[in-house]
Amino acid sequence: MGGGVSMSIKTVLVIEDDPAISNFMTAILTGNDYKVLTADTGKLGISMCATWSPDVVILDLGLPDIDGIEVLQTIRGWSEIPILIVSARGNEVEKVSALDEGADDYITKPFGTSELLARIRTALRHSTKKDSENSQLINGELTIDFEKRQVEIAGEKIHLTPNEYKII
Ligand code: CA
Questions:
Q1: C-alpha 141 to ligand 1 mean position (Å)
Q2: pLDDT in tens, 46-92
Q3: Would you say 130 and 146 are in contact if contact means Cβ atoms under 8 Å apart?
Q4: Alpha carbon 94 to chain centroid, angstroms
Q5: pLDDT tens per residue across span 87-106
Q6: Which residue from 109, 106, 104, 110 is spatially nearest to 128, judged by alpha carbons?
Q7: Is the peptide bond before 110 cis (omega within 30 degrees of 0)?
Q8: Residue 16 Cα, ligand 1 centroid: separation in angstroms?
Q9: Sign of dihedral through CA atoms 99, 34, 133, 137?
Q10: What is the C-alpha to C-alpha distance for residues 10 and 141, in angstroms, rounded to an integer?
């Protein structure tokens, strides 16, 4: 706290249906000053990703409603957000296809605290580079221009106060 360039809190969205793993990740991340959002289905994960624009997504490939790969493709349709895949041991084909579809990295279950944190730090470093080139987010009819701080819905400019802007 208190002036300075350093710590802005990063938000991690965990899309994972196994409560034990989800709770484990939430505990580690919260304890390391990340803000954590969780979704236990693919559809909820996609909508939370669109609503909250987290800094990193951790995505389990085995979800109850839709396939993790489909979640990945959907998010990649409108966002370059770093996506870290969680995959079961030995599932090489699955991992490779996730990387082909635009995942940034993967972590194999079971994993430990320091590995999880290291992968997230790496993913965040990559995204800082991308951010400078990518200052516009387009999601359906919603366009957010981060440089101009301008929001448009279906081509109509919406006027926001700085505080309202922060909320989106
Ligand atoms: Ca699962």
A1: 32
A2: 999 999 999 999 999 999 999 999 999 999 999 999 999 998 877 88
A3: no
A4: 19
A5: 887 788 889 999 999 999 99
A6: 104
A7: yes
A8: 6
A9: positive
A10: 26
Give the residue-averaged pLDDT of 146-168. 72
Cα radius of gyration (the chain): 16
Q: How far is the CA of 3 from the centre of ligand 1 (A)?
A: 41
Tokens of 81: 């957000």
pLDDT digits (tens, 9 = 90+) for 98-139: 999 999 999 998 899 999 999 999 999 877 765 555 566 666
Residue type present at position 46: I
End-to-end CA separation in angstroms for the chain: 22
CA of 114 to the centre of ligand 1 (A): 21
Q: Please state the pTM of the whole predicted model.
A: 0.73
Among 57, 59, 55, which residue's Cα sits nearest to residue 11?
Answer: 55
Beta bridge partners of residue 59, listed in sequence order: 15, 85
DSSP state of 89: T
Q: Can you spell out the DSSP letters for 90-112?
A: T-HHHHHHHHHTT--EEEEES--
